[in-house]
Design goal:
about 425 residues; alpha+beta; Aminopeptidase; two-stranded antiparallel sheet; 16 strands; about 20% strand; disordered C terminus
C-alpha cells in the first residue's frame, strides 16, 4: 500500500487499475516477490546494482523533476525515472552476473518469494567519481513500438550535467522538432539524428546524436542512456500503478496505435490509478489540447511518481524493477560509474540545481519548403540557457547565427523503408 500524494484525498485503495471507460479493466497484482536469494558470489553484484538503482531514484530523479522545475518540451513518456534507466543495461560482460538472477520468481512450491535483504549505503564499497571535470549525460526516450525495428527516432531529449567540484547539477530538455545541423546530413529535426546514425551503422545512433547536440550547445556529451515504451510501462507496473487526479476530462481521437493507425482514448475527471499502458496514454496524448497541455500532464505524472517512489520502500523493489526493464534500456555507463554518479549526486543540494528547457521563448516556428513544421533556435537564447545549465560564458563557443535554412534535399537515409505511421499526419506520433 502506498500513500497518496498530499494534494489527493485518500480514497479506499482500489483492487483494480482504473482504465479510461471503454478500454476494460486490468487487475493489478503486486510483484510476486524477488526469487530465491542468490549465492554469495553473485550477491555482491546485486547489492551494488540495487544500491545504484535506489540511490538514483532518491537522488538523481529530483534533479529532473523536483520542485516542479522540470519543463520538457518533448515526450517524457519514457523517462519517468530519468537516470534510473542508466542502471538497467550493463555494457561490460565482466559487470554482468554469470546467469539471470531470477528476480520476481516465486518459490518452487508456489509460496511467495522472500524479500531482498535491507542494507545501507555504508555497507557497500562505493567508488568516488574519479574525474574533476563536469560530466554530461544525454538521456533519450524512443518512440519505437514493441513490434518495430531498432531504427527509430528519439521522442525525448534530456541532458543531465553534474559538476563534481562545485557539487552542482543542471538539467536541460530539448524539443524534438528543433531544426539543427546534423553533421554530414544537413539540417533536420534533432530527433532524426539518432535514427540516421542507427540506419548507417547499428549502434551509431548515440554517436551521431552526440555530435549533433555538441554542435548545437557547444558542450561535450560524455555518456548516453536510452529507454523505450516497454521500459516505461514495466516501471509503472512495478510500482503497482500510479495515482493521478485528472483535473478535466479529455479525449484524443488520434492517439497512435500499435498497428500504425490511430485510436480514441478518453479520460474522465477524478482519481485514476494508471497502470503502465494507461499511464503511457496519459502522458503521450497531445491531440486533445496541445503540447502545453501534454507538458502539464507530464509534470503532474512525474511529480506523482516521485511522491509515490519516496513513500514506497524502493530498495526492496529495485531488483525487480531492474530485471523487468533490462531489455528496454541501454547505456554506455558501467556499473561502477553508475555507483559513482549516485554517490556524487547525493552531495548536490536543491539550491545548486538548475533545470531548464528550450521552450517557445527560445525558438521561432518555421515551415520548411517540404511543409514540415519545425522550430528554429534563437542563438542568444540558447547561449544564455547553456550558460545557466553548463557553466560560465568563457567556456561557451560562439554560436553561429541560425537563419531559416534553404531548401534541403532529404538524405537518402530518411527515404529508406523505416517504420512510419501512414494514418496519423502529426509528425512524431
Amino acid at each position: 500500500m502506498f500513500q497518496l500524494p498530499p494534494f489527493i484525498k485518500p480514497p479506499p485503495r482500489p483492487k483494480e487499475v482504473v482504465r479510461p471507460p471503454g478500454f476494460g479493466e486490468v487487475v493489478m497484482e503486486p510483484p510476486p516477490g524477488f526469487g530465491e536469494p542468490p549465492d554469495r558470489a553473485r550477491w555482491s553484484w546485486r547489492r551494488r546494482i540495487t544500491f545504484a538503482v535506489s540511490s538514483l531514484l532518491f537522488v538523481l530523479v529530483p534533479l529532473g523533476i523536483g520542485a516542479g522545475l522540470y519543463r520538457s518540451s518533448g515526450d517524457v513518456t519514457n523517462l519517468v525515472f530519468d537516470v534510473l534507466m542508466m542502471t538497467a543495461w550493463v555494457t561490460s560482460p565482466s559487470d554482468r552476473p554469470p546467469e539471470p538472477v531470477g528476480v520476481g520468481t516465486p518459490m518452487p512450491d508456489g509460496t511467495p518469494a522472500p524479500e531482498a535483504p535491507r542494507f545501507e549505503a555504508s555497507q557497500l564499497d562505493v567508488p568516488e567519481w574519479s574525474s574533476k571535470e563536469r560530466v554530461n549525460i544525454i538521456l533519450l526516450g524512443t518512440d519505437r513500438r514493441d513490434n518495430e525495428p531498432d531504427v527509430t527516432r528519439t521522442d525525448t531529449l534530456l541532458i543531465v550535467s553534474i559538476d563534481p567540484v562545485t557539487k552542482s547539477a543542471g538539467v536541460l530538455s530539448l524539443p524534438r522538432d528543433l531544426w539543427v545541423n546534423i553533421p554530414g546530413y544537413g539540417f533536420e529535426r534533432v530527433n532524426t539524428a539518432f535514427e540516421i546514425g542507427e540506419f548507417q551503422k547499428k549502434g551509431g545512433g548515440p554517436a551521431l546524436l552526440r555530435k549533433t547536440i555538441e554542435g548545437l550547445l557547444g558542450v561535450p556529451i560524455h555518456h548516453y542512456a536510452l529507454v523505450g515504451f516497454t521500459g516505461f510501462r514495466k516501471v509503472v507496473d512495478q510500482l503497482g500503478g500510479v495515482v493521478v487526479d485528472v483535473e478535466r476530462p479529455f479525449r484524443d481521437d488520434e492517439f497512435p496505435s500499435g498497428n500504425y493507425g490511430t485510436r480514441r482514448i478518453l479520460f474522465q475527471t477524478g482519481l485514476q490509478v494508471l497502470d503502465g499502458e494507461t499511464a503511457l496514454w496519459f502522458v503521450r496524448s497531445r491531440h486533445a489540447d496541445s503540447d502545453f497541455g501534454r507538458n502539464r500532464r507530464q509534470r503532474q505524472f512525474l511529480l506523482a511518481v516521485r511522491q509515490q517512489a519516496l513513500q514506497l520502500n524502493m530498495i526492496t523493489k529495485a531488483p525487480a524493477m531492474l530485471s523487468s526493464i533490462m531489455d528496454s534500456v541501454k547505456t554506455d555507463l558501467r556499473t561502477t560509474e553508475i555507483l559513482s554518479l549516485a554517490r556524487m549526486a547525493k552531495d548536490v543540494e536543491t539550491s545548486k540545481l538548475v533545470s531548464r528547457a528550450v521552450d517557445e521563448s527560445m525558438v521561432n516556428p518555421w515551415m520548411t519548403p517540404g511543409g514540415a513544421a519545425v522550430l528554429l533556435p534563437e542563438p542568444a537564447a540558447i547561449r544564455q540557457v547553456v550558460q545557466e545549465v553548463f557553466g560560465t560564458p568563457g567556456k561557451l563557443p560562439t554560436l553561429p547565427v541560425m537563419r531559416a535554412p534553404p531548401v534541403v534535399s532529404t538524405p537518402d537515409v530518411l527515404s529508406a523503408p523505416i517504420a512510419v505511421n501512414p494514418v496519423s499526419s502529426t509528425p512524431g506520433g
